Fold:
Amino acid sequence: TDSAGWKCTAKACNDFKRPYLENPTPAELAEWVRFHDIGILNVAGNRESKNPGVYQKTMDLIVAAFGPTEHNNS
Structure:
């Protein structure tokens, strides 16, 4: 939580008064999305080249929270 990308994302959320959540469990993520009535979820974090396996771990979390979804790996 001390990377330049994290600091930039947290600052943007604070500046635009948007809620954010760090490293939730699937249940925490699902509840947080419902509580805040989130329509579009932005997921930010380290890139795969800097943190191998992070993409799959993130997709597993999202699927566990919301069920299977179509996604674009770009």
In short: The radius of gyration is 13 Å. The helical segments are 4-15, 26-35, 54-66.
